[in-house]
Amino acid sequence: MVEEYNTDTEVLLRRTWKVRGKLGGEGKWDVEVGDPIPDVTNAETIDIIESKDQPIVSRRNTRINLEWRIRNLPYPIDIYSINVNNDEKCIIVKTSNKKYYKKLHVPELARLTLPLEQNNIQASHSFNTLIITYRKPQMLLDMEKEWFLELKNVKHVNTMPNECKTQ
Amino acid sequence: MPGTSEERQPTLSESYTTVFAQEEMAGTSPERQPIPSESYATGDVLVAPRTASEVIDIIKWKTRGNLLLHLKCFKGDSLAAAQVQEVRSITRIERIGAHSHIRGLGLDDSLEPRAVSQGMVGQKMARKAAGVILQMIREGKIAGRAVLLAGQPGTGKTAIAMGLAQALGPDTPFTSMAGSEIYSLEMSKTEALTQAIRKSIGIRIKEESEIIEGEVVEVVVERAAGAGGARLGRLTLKTTDMETNYDMGTKMIDSLLKEKVYYLHVYKFDLLIYFDMAYLWYKGGSGLRGVWRPPPNLVQAGDVITIDKATGKINKLGRSFARARDYDATGQQARFVQCPEGELQKRKEVVHTVTLHEVDVINSRTHGFLALFSGDTGEIKSEIREQINAKVTEWREEGKAEMIPGVLFIDEAHMLDIECFSFLNRALESDTAPVVMMATNRGITRIRGTNYKSPHGIPLDLLDRMIIVPTAPYSQQELKEILNIRCEEEDCQMSNDALTVLTRIATETSLRYAIQLITTASLVARRRKANEVSMEDVKKVYSLFLDEHRSEQFVKEYQDEFMFNDGAGGEMAHTLKTTQ
Q1: Which UniProt key words apply to this protein (chain B) (predicted)?
Q2: Residue B312: left (phi > 0), alpha (psi -120 to 50), or beta?
Q3: Residue A25: which of B244, B248, B368 has the nearest Cβ?
Q4: Average pLDDT for B300-314
Q5: Cβ-Cβ contacts under 8 Å, B238 against chain A
């Protein structure tokens, strides 16, 4: 697992997990939070893939909210119905025109075994993007606070290549 | 005489040409006019004013020289089954190889060899033996058996091995190599052998994989602008809740398009007759009836399919209930299913078959990624193999995986040397060993790498661990049968007397030489604008091309006039020796 934080705002920018196949090998990165990693595999070798104009889900958390952005969704806001399903532990996004359906899992809450609450959900739609926000419950906020205190002790790795000398 | 017990097809000759010409003349009356196949609509009932066997004969005669598929028989009527057996059922894109006419071992259900079947002729004892071995492999209980196919050149050893591979089907790993392939500068002999052995063992494993499951809304394939533009494919799938467009790669487009031929379903014989044979059929009238419809495995709007995202394998589950009313488009055998619900993409347990070698390659870190591009795996560390073996045993104990021992076929086994043989001795004892099949055409000869002589050039201790299947030279009747099959395979129509002459050539020289003459003779015949190869054509190529025996004669006769042969041969050899 790899996490990237913004040290100023203490917000998680990216959290990715390496998933290995059963047969072994290198495995692939599965992005939980943050923008998806662009796929480098050649288009020639791919058999089937979603078209570029199809909806894409990406996660981006803020300090107080969990946030999902679904791009390429042109339908107006009243088309969507966003409901919590605690049996399957996910948020279900439906469209009344039967064009889009997605189960959004919430691993942060699943780890704390917290139930999902409909009241915490808010949604807005603009520029072909549906933004769903879920207010972080107090328990999660507390845990994150502790976690950042822990992170303070971690030595920073400077990823900027400032030691790259010019001639 | 062997080879006559099965009913032979009448040779399709001029008689049909005249019948057909007459009919084309007669077909001018409006109701008997054959309609261009493009104008047939799904569900049209068409009639051929002939009996089934006539129809089959005409199709066979007409399709010579055409590589597309025409006839495919489903299980069912015995008449159709017997007749259609000879007709290939797959689209031919590959070139015609020496053994491309072989489609199986030619055995019946009780593993008794049929005289002429699946491209196999004669060699009954050897085929029966191969059938027993086939059963042994299928049961998969016994590991590490070795089989030796021994016989003179041109007696069908490789053909039997190829037939066995075909009979085993695509799920059982079958590795074919020549004995000399192990001599490489990049890899040690034992490494090459180990890889070959591990390529021959499959593991069937359950793995969670991304599956797209939905109903097809539309399949569109179009060519990008400009000459030779890449093809673009788009597939729209839906569930009851959503709809998504997918882009398809070239491979996927090909697999979807390949089957895009309509067919005629003849109820009486459960027979499928493909597109370009449609000129046989008329609308209305009496005779053999059929219904015009798309082939069963064509993916079209209204089908419910699953696509394995990793492998791109498409599986058709059935037709959606919503489309149940276009019954004619689907036929009796169509299965109706509900349109899936929820998300299109799901995670499901799928059974994969991989070979041990593939697992090795995935896990050998140094090569893992690059190996996919170069295809060159180099040597794989023995620690990795041990780890994988341990892992596989663990999976098997937990019931997560199943081992499928396959076949390693080593042609020209006398080219292996003593080190390889001793390695094989050891490798066969492992419980993960495949069935090793070897073929050799040598008699008592030197074992490579030693000065000892042994039968087949294989050391006695290994021979002792083998079951040996001998192949015997073909009889004249069998030779004729093989030549006949080859003529069909090479799309060459040969007159009866030409075939007799060719058979005679095969008995006197060799079968391989006679087979070489088929295409050459047909080219000669084509030069004089004849459709059929006559005796003269065969005679002509016989005089044009020498067989091995006549070539030897020729060399002996004119030896003095060849290079380096002015009585200095001995001297040459001597100087060579001194310079080395």
Answers
A1: ATP-binding, Chromatin regulator, DNA damage, DNA repair, Helicase, Hydrolase, Nucleotide-binding, Nucleus, Transcription, Transcription regulation
A2: left
A3: B368
A4: 79
A5: 98
The predicted model scores a pTM of 0.66
β-bridge mates for residue B494, sequence order: B533
The CA distance from B344 to the nearest CA of chain A, in Å, is 9
Amino acid present at B279: Y
Q: Which of A159-163, B21-25, B232-236 has the highest mean pLDDT?
A: B232-236
* Contact across the interface for B241 and A101, Cβ inside 8 Å: yes
Of residues A24, A130, A44, B83, the one with CA closest to residue B71: B83
CATH T-level topology, domain A51-151 = Immunoglobulin-like (2.60.40)
Mean pLDDT of A108-122: 86
CATH superfamily of B201-257+303-405: RuvBL1 DNA/RNA binding domain (2.40.50.360)
Does pLDDT of B296 surpass 60?
A: no
Q: How many residues does chain A have?
A: 167
| The predicted structure's pLDDT at residue B418 | 92
The ipTM estimated for the assembled molecules is: 0.81
The whole-chain average pLDDT of chain B stands at 74
Rounded Cα distance, B217 and B239, in Å: 10
Task: Measure the CA–CA gap between B354 and A143, rounded to whole angstroms.
Answer: 44
Binary contact (B362, A48; C-beta < 8 A): no
Q: B377, B371 in Cβ contact below 8 A?
A: yes
Partner residue opposite A48 with nearest CB, options B252, B354, B388: B252
Residue spans of beta strands (DSSP E) within B417-560: 435-440, 444-446, 453-455, 466-471, 493-494, 532-533
| Nearest-by-Cβ selection for A23 from B312, B359, B369 | B359
Residue span(s) of chain B under CATH 1.10.8.60 come to: 476-545
* Tokens of residue B60, six digits: 């066979």
pLDDT tens digits for B498-556?
999 999 998 888 888 998 898 899 888 888 888 888 888 899 999 999 888 888 988 88
Contact B246 A102 (CB under 8 A): no
In CATH, the architecture of B476-545 is Orthogonal Bundle (1.10)
Tell me the per-residue pLDDT of A124-139, one tens digit each, with 9 for 90 and over. 998 889 999 999 889 8
Picking from B507, B381, B420, B473, the residue whose alpha carbon sits closest to that of residue B181 is: B420
| pLDDT of B55 | 63
